[in-house]
Structure formats: structure tokens, C-alpha cells
Design a protein that fits this description.
heterotrimer; A mainly alpha (394); B alpha+beta (163); C mainly alpha (223); B: 163 residues; 2 domains; 6-stranded antiparallel beta sheet; elongated; C: 223 residues; mainly alpha; 0% strand; globular
Chain lengths: 394, 163, 223
């Protein structure tokens, strides 16, 4: 039986410094390109924020090249994003209106910023009635730059590159639970996850079908109004009656349970793997994405370390026997990094498995890290500049 | 031979993926956004209030009366009519207006509110139904999407529920 | 003249059904989807089950048409009994979905015998009351606004047979919108799909239960 603590292979010098720097240069240039507009802005805080993020993202990519590992360095970025995004978001809300709650006046004026997680619920009403069931604005406005068209454009464009890796490189919520999951050394509910994980990972699909059907029936974004745990750390409809009070209670309960407590106890991303319908929706893009993780059956000794390390139970005994991950694999790289036999490998569909896996990894990482720098990096830069702005004496 | 062909195809695809990644911030985001923006979609009337039916001019400000919004079968909203007073800055301190909502020449509701001095302050108002088709509101603020008297930007939005 | 009037009514009913089909889809989709997800794969079997569902729905329509015509007047929107009926139907749908979900066999889904009296999957020696019939009939008498509009028109017709024909045509118009559900016959049935369907059914039962109770206690909660 696999140990309840994660046994991670010690960092190794996979690649020389010179070669690592060479491979990092394109990513450094990309980061500079992405943040050049920030340097053209007047604020010192924005300059510092941009500089910090350029160094941060470039440094992490360098370490990925140097050590040959993906998961631990990606996790540092992802957890930073998960915690700094709400910080910056809430700070902006407090500065603007003094509260995290959205008054109904803002909802009817189309000032609610659009969140990509509501996208599946919008499809059927948009298709049948050309109606967007979200209190936002389709085009960007001065008071709401995060319009529906822009955010859907961002999501769709990035999904073409990332596929389900969106959940490992872009989603600014997943890092919160990844952070809590990383805290303890040992998992406490190992048997629970082992016994029920294969059923629990189907719940996101059920919630997806449910929210799509019911949202189309009642013309309301059901996930947003009732089931989103992250309302607790972003913004939520102002409590104005019994119903909105119940909704708020549900949001807080789901956040505490699925995003804080269960990840801490199980060392899994429980909200992502066992609840999030958007994650299930995004899994469909794995069907067309070219990058995946595969298993070389000639090397695999069935130690199940990969299964234990997978944050979202995207590996089963049967799938590993077939040399594959399940559809909900978010390409975080945990299984590849933990495998002591190098049986778990990055793979480009259409090429032989385990032949030049590092090439597949590099091709994947250049695209994924570019998206992470562009999207998550800009969020980080904004939050860092907010922190600097608030620091005493700054 | 087949393996080689597939590998070439795979690496070509990977190259295209990287090309797409480069194009994302410069071309693709705006491209896809424009597709969505021009898809003929509109925000649900529960949130947007619907479309403007008629505009009534008053001295210094105007009143926009919207089309009735009736809920779909399971939609959990009362039917309502939205009325917008704008610009809010030009409104008198106290508004007491009788408004014809259905265009039949007879006033259907009387809307009364005091414009708060602070534009960000919560406001309250009364709506008195002058015929049996509408529901009166007393000291209403932002109770629900079908019952409200709120300020948004430079507009005062009033929603009157219908029977 | 009578024939012309009849065909004009039939045409009107067909158009009304086609126009309001999406409403029926929104009403019945949440019930049909999880139920169809558990049916064994295959277009033939799927078609038969869907036809059974629609036939039961038509039976519900006929019952309503006959009742409306015999009463001889419309069922007003404000009729208190309608509230009780709608709330009760929603609760029955909730119960039906829960029984259906927990009654599905835990074994492999293909050619499995059901442990629930409401479910028939595959072939059984003696056909039991089918889930298709129960769910179809309940959705058929769910008093939605387009249904009531059709009822108003049918009640005005001269003969009972005309009212029944009106509803047959109305039904035909709405049934067109159910054809895409046949595509679910191509989806591969695995234990995972069946499990997802069970969970969806339980969640929908909670929603119907909440909706039914809200209607019955006359506390319509507006957003």
C-alpha cells in the first residue's frame, strides 16, 4: 500500500545551467513583451508589480528547465495566483464601493464582472433564445472592463492552447485549495479517497448536467446563484432577503468544506476534482488537445505512487494498465515528477509513447507557461502593485 | 512510414499550438470577443430591464418606459415594467410623477422618491398603482429584480411589479 | 365548413406546439436526460423508450383535453386548484426521480434487471410499469402556460373529438423538439454514465422538491 505521505523524488540537476538559461530566454522575452504596457504606465507600483512577476515567472520556468520537474514549480505560481487574486480583487472592491457584496443596482446596470465558470450554463439559453442569463454587459464599459465577450474570448483562446490544463495554469481559484492541500505532510483521509474517489470524481459531471438543464429551465445561472464556493472570497449578491442569506450560507459552507478543510485532510484538490462543473466541461477539451500524460507499461511497476500523488484522482488502476490518464487529467505533472521509474511521461499525441518525452514536455510548457504568464501573471502583477500601494510608507 | 507520418503531423500540430499561443493576446482574444459581441445576443430582460417602449420628456430630464418583462415558465421573477429617470443629476430633489406605462393615455402608476444628496447613498421610493394591473410599492429600495427603486450611475431605475 | 374549421384548428394547434416546444423542452428535459442516460445504448431501444415516454405524455394531454372540454370553460390562471396540482405534480416528479435513482441496479447497466417497480431496463419476462410511462404522464399533465393556452382553445371547440384532435396536433408540434434526444442513443453506456445519471436524478429531485414545496406553501421566492 502506498505511503500516506507523498514521496517526492529529490530535486536533481537535470540540465546544465547554460542550457537551462538558453531554454528560458524565449519565456523571459515573452514575459517582457507581456508587461511592456505596464512599464509604459505612470505608476511606480505597476512598474514594481510587473518587474516582480517577470522575475518570478522567468525564475520558475528556469527551475523547471534546470530540474526537469514541472509540478513543484508550477504549484508555486498557482498557489500564489490562488491567494493573491482574491486579495487584489477584494481590495479593489473595498476601494470602489466599501463592500464585497454586489448591490442589485450594479446587477441591473450590467456592472457584474463576468466569470468564466458560468459559461456552461449560458450555452442553451443563448442557443435557443439568444439570451445571456448573466447580469453583466456583453461589451466592455468603463465601469465593467470584464465584459462577457472579452472573458469568453480569453477563455476560448486559452483553451485552444491549454485544454484541461486551464485548471493547472489559468484558473485563479484552484490555487487556493492546492495551497491548503500542500500544507500537511501526511494525508488523513487516505482510505476515504481510495474507496470513494472513483465515484466522487463523477460528481462534477453530474453537477454540470444539472446546472446546464436547470439554468436553461429557469433562465438563471444556477451555479453562480447557488453553488459557487468562490463567492466567499470574491463578490456575491448582497443579502437582501431569506433566499440570498441562504445562498451566502451555502457559498461559505462549500468554500470552507471543499476548498479549505477537505484539501487539508486529503491533500487533494477536492473542489476541482469532486465538485467543479466547469472543470468537467473543460475536460472535454482534452479530447482535442495534443498534449497528454501517458505511462510506459514496460517500466511501470504498479507502485501506485502516481495515483496517490494525483490531486484530482485522474488515475485509476485500469487507466494506468492501459497506459493513460482519465479524461479529467489537468496535466499538472505531479505523477510524472513522482514516478521513480520514469514510466509516467509527457506525450504528444501521434508520436510513440516514451520516445523523447522531454521534447513533448517542452512543447507543452512553452504554450502553457506563456498563457500562465499572460493571464495569471497579469493578475499577480495587479495584486503585487496593490500590496505595494498599501504598504506603509510606500 | 505511418508512424513517421503521424509524428510529422503531431509536431506540426504542436507548432501550430505554439503559434496560437503567441497569437492569443494580440489577435485571438479580440477576434473571439468580436464573434460573441456580434452574435446577436442580449442580456436577459430580468437583468437588463428589456427594451425601451417609449420616452417621456419632462423639463430637464426624461423618463424611459420599458416593455413589460414577463417571466418564462419556471423563471422565478414577477412580471414587471422598468422605468428609468435620467439624467439623475438633473432631477429635482423630490420627484412625484404619474406615468402612463401601457401607452393608453391614462396614468398607470405614480412614482415618488427623494433624490439623495449623496449619489452613492441607498435610496427609497414609493410606487402607487393607479389601476389594478400593477402592484404598489412602499419605501422600496432593491428588494428583488422585479421591485426596486435604485440609482445606477446617473440614472434612477424603478421596477414596478405587475399582477 | 366544419372540415375547414377542424383543419384550421389542427393547424393552429400544430403551430402552437412548434412555437412552444422549447418551453416543453425546458420542462421535460431535466426529467428525460438522466432517465435516458441510463438506458442501454442503441438507437432502436432508445427510440422505443422515447416513444413510450411521449405516448404517456400524450395520454396526459388527452386526459387534460377531455377534462377541459367537459368542464366547458377555461381553467383560469388564478384557479387555486391549479397551484395545488402544479405543486403536487412537481413533488411527485421529485419522488419519482429519487425512486428511479436509488432503484437502478448497481450491477452493469446493460441487460440488467431493475429492482425498482418504476424502472424497466432491457427486456423482462413480464413488463412492469415503466419509468417511461410514469415520468411521461406526469410531465404530460404539468400545467405549463402553453398547455393552458392550448386548453383555452380546445375548450371552445364544438366536439370532444375536436378537442382531442387539437391536443394531438399540439402534442405533435411539441414532440418534434424531442427528436434530438434520440442522439443520446449513440452515447456509450458505461457504469460512469449510469452513476452520473443517478446523481443528476437525485439533484433534480431536490430541485423539483424545492419548487413543489415553494408552490404549495404559496411562497414563490422571487430572485
Amino acid at each position: 500500500m502506498a505511503s500516506q505521505s507523498i514521496s517526492v523524488a529529490p530535486p536533481k540537476a537535470f540540465r546544465g545551467v547554460g542550457r537551462s538559461i538558453l531554454l528560458t530566454v524565449p519565456m523571459a522575452l515573452w514575459a517582457l513583451l507581456m508587461f511592456t504596457p505596464a512599464f509604459q504606465k505612470a505608476g511606480r507600483d505597476e512598474h514594481i508589480g510587473a518587474l516582480v512577476v517577470i522575475v518570478f515567472m522567468t525564475g520558475l520556468f528556469f527551475m523547471m528547465m534546470r530540474t526537469g520537474e514541472t509540478y513543484r514549480w508550477r504549484r508555486i505560481f498557482f498557489v500564489a495566483l490562488g491567494f493573491l487574486f482574491p486579495f487584489g480583487f477584494i481590495a479593489a472592491l473595498i476601494a470602489e464601493r466599501g463592500t464585497m457584496s454586489i448591490p442589485i443596482s450594479r446587477m441591473v446596470s450590467g456592472d457584474t464582472p463576468f466569470c468564466f465558470m458560468v459559461t456552461p450554463s449560458l450555452i442553451l439559453p443563448a442557443a435557443f433564445a439568444r439570451t445571456i442569463i448573466f447580469p453583466g454587459s456583453i461589451l466592455p464599459t468603463a465601469s465593467n472592463p470584464h465584459s462577457i465577450a472579452i472573458m469568453i474570448g480569453v477563455w476560448f483562446a486559452m483553451t485552444l492552447v491549454l485544454g484541461k490544463a486551464w485548471c493547472s495554469y489559468a484558473c485563479f481559484f484552484g490555487g487556493i485549495e492546492e495551497g491548503f492541500a500542500a500544507l500537511p505532510k501526511r494525508r488523513r483521509l487516505h482510505r476515504f479517497v481510495t474507496k470513494y474517489g472513483s465515484t466522487l470524481r463523477l460528481i462534477p459531471w453530474a453537477i454540470l448536467v444539472f446546472v446546464v438543464l436547470v439554468s436553461a429551465a429557469i433562465f438563471e445561472p444556477v451555479y453562480c446563484m447557488w453553488l459557487c464556493p468562490f463567492k466567499a472570497v470574491t463578490e456575491f449578491p448582497a443579502v437582501r432577503n431569506v433566499e440570498t442569506a441562504i445562498q451566502m450560507g451555502v457559498f461559505v459552507a462549500l468554500f470552507v468544506g471543499l476548498v479549505v478543510v477537505l484539501p487539508y485532510l486529503t491533500k487533494k484538490r477536492t473542489q476541482c476534482g469532486f465538485f467543479c462543473p466547469f472543470g468537467a466541461f473543460q475536460s472535454l477539451s482534452n479530447k482535442i488537445n495534443l498534449f497528454e500524460i501517458r505511462f510506459d507499461r514496460t517500466k511501470c511497476v504498479d507502485c501506485t505512487l502516481c495515483q496517490t500523488s494525483c490531486p484530482t484522482v485522474a488515475l485509476s488502476k485500469d487507466s494506468i494498465a492501459e497506459g493513460k490518464t482519465l479524461l479529467n487529467c489537468m496535466k499538472c505533472g505531479a505523477c510524472v515528477d513522482v514516478c521513480k521509474k520514469d514510466a509516467a511521461v509527457w506525450h504528444l499525441k501521434g508520436t510513440p509513447v516514451a520516445v523523447k518525452p522531454e521534447r513533448a514536455r517542452l512543447l507543452f510548457l512553452y504554450g502553457a507557461w506563456a498563457m500562465a504568464t499572460m493571464f495569471g501573471g497579469s493578475v499577480l502583477a495587479g495584486s503585487v502593485s496593490t500590496i505595494i500601494h498599501w504598504l506603509p510608507g510606500m | 512510414m505511418r508512424t513517421r507520418f503521424l509524428s510529422i503531423l503531431a509536431y506540426t500540430g504542436a507548432g501550430f499550438t505554439l503559434l496560437i499561443a503567441v497569437c492569443v493576446p494580440f489577435v485571438l482574444i479580440m477576434g473571439f470577443s468580436n464573434v460573441v459581441a456580434h452574435a446577436g445576443l442580449h442580456i436577459d430582460a430580468t437583468y437588463s430591464g428589456g427594451t425601451i417602449a417609449r420616452t417621456i420628456q419632462r423639463s430637464g430630464y426624461r423618463i424611459e418606459v420599458y416593455q413589460q418583462v414577463r417571466p418564462r415558465m419556471f423563471e422565478r421573477t414577477e412580471p414587471f415594467v422598468q422605468i428609468v429617470f435620467e439624467p439623475a443629476d438633473a432631477l429635482p430633489a423630490r420627484v412625484n410623477d404619474e406615468i402612463d406605462l401601457d401607452g393608453d393615455g391614462r396614468a398607470d402608476v405614480r412614482v415618488s422618491f427623494t433624490k439623495p444628496a449623496d449619489a452613492n447613498a441607498k435610496m427609497h421610493g414609493d410606487v402607487t398603482a393607479l389601476n389594478g394591473g400593477y402592484v404598489s410599492l412602499s419605501n422600496a429600495s432593491g428588494e428583488s429584480f422585479s421591485r426596486m427603486v435604485v440609482r445606477t450611475g446617473n440614472k434612477i431605475v424603478v421596477r414596478v411589479p405587475m399582477k | 365548413m366544419a372540415a375547414l374549421s377542424l383543419s384550421a384548428s389542427a393547424g393552429e394547434a400544430l403551430v402552437l406546439g412548434l412555437a412552444t416546444g422549447p418551453v416543453c423542452l425546458a420542462t421535460c428535459g431535466p426529467v428525460v436526460v438522466p432517465w435516458m442516460m441510463v438506458q442501454p445504448r442503441g438507437l432502436g431501444l432508445h427510440s422505443r423508450q422515447l416513444l413510450l415516454f411521449l405516448a404517456a405524455r400524450l395520454a396526459g394531454y388527452m386526459v387534460f383535453a377531455a377534462a377541459v372540454w367537459m368542464v366547458g370553460s377555461t381553467i383560469p390562471r388564478a384557479w387555486v386548484g391549479r397551484t395545488w396540482l402544479m405543486g403536487g405534480i412537481q413533488l411527485l416528479l421529485a419522488v419519482g426521480l429519487v425512486v428511479y435513482a436509488v432503484g437502478w441496479p448497481h450491477r452493469r447497466c446493460t441487460a440488467a434487471r431493475s429492482t425498482s417497480r418504476l424502472v424497466e431496463i432491457g427486456e423482462t419476462p413480464r413488463p412492469m410499469m415503466s419509468g417511461a410511462l410514469a415520468l411521461g404522464f406526469l410531465t404530460g399533465i404539468n400545467l405549463c402556460p402553453p398547455f393552458l393556452v392550448a386548453g383555452v382553445r380546445a375548450a371552445e371547440l364544438e366536439h370532444l373529438s375536436a378537442a382531442l384532435l387539437f391536443f394531438v396536433c399540439f402534442f405533435a408540434g411539441t414532440a418534434v423538439w424531442f427528436l434530438p434526444f434520440l442522439s443520446m442513443g449513440f452515447v456509450q453506456r458505461t457504469p460512469a454514465v449510469v452513476t452520473v445519471a443517478r446523481i443528476v436524478a437525485v439533484m433534480l429531485a431536490c430541485w423539483y422538491g424545492f419548487s413543489g414545496v415553494s408552490i404549495l406553501i404559496e411562497r414563490t421566492v422571487y430572485g
